[in-house]
UniProtKB/TrEMBL annotation:
Gene Ontology CC terms: cytoplasm
Cleaved signal peptide residues: none
Protein's name according to its UniProt entry: Phosphoribosylformylglycinamidine synthase subunit PurS
Places the protein is found: Cytoplasm
Molecular function in Gene Ontology: ATP binding; phosphoribosylformylglycinamidine synthase activity
Catalytic reaction(s) noted: N(2)-formyl-N(1)-(5-phospho-beta-D-ribosyl)glycinamide + L-glutamine + ATP + H2O = 2-formamido-N(1)-(5-O-phospho-beta-D-ribosyl)acetamidine + L-glutamate + ADP + phosphate + H(+)
Domain of life of the organism encoding this protein: Bacteria
Pathway: Purine metabolism; IMP biosynthesis via de novo pathway; 5-amino-1-(5-phospho-D-ribosyl)imidazole from N(2)-formyl-N(1)-(5-phospho-D-ribosyl)glycinamide: step 1/2
Enzyme class, broadest EC rank: ligase
Length: 95
């Protein structure tokens, strides 16, 4: 079984009230090194079999037509979860 990761973020010109709330709370909790936050969405799509280029293309199309609102959001990543470990956090740190 394969898995495709889709990440969607608000377009830069769109206000992000959830991100603003988080960035306001971070310093109160001692996290003073962060100056901005944008909150997005992550989807994990499971497929029977391997993640092929055709599956990734279908996931991209699904992301653009169903998983995101193209008026206010951008699809920023569609990737095979097994081979794309960028940003994955492990017990040892970022993989």
């Amino acid at each position: 079984m394969g898995r495709v990761v889709v990440e969607v973020m608000p377009k830069p010109e769109i206000l992000d009230p959830q991100g603003k709330a988080v960035v306001g709370a971070l310093p109160r909790l001692g996290f003073t090194q962060f100056s901005g936050v944008r909150q997005g969405k992550r989807f994990e799509l499971e497929v029977d079999g391997d993640v092929t280029p055709e599956v990734l293309a279908a996931a991209q199309q699904a992301a653009e037509t169903l998983l995101s609102n193209p008026v206010i959001e951008d699809v920023v990543r569609v990737a095979d979860a097994a081979t794309d470990a960028a940003g994955t956090i492990t017990a040892e740190g970022v993989a």
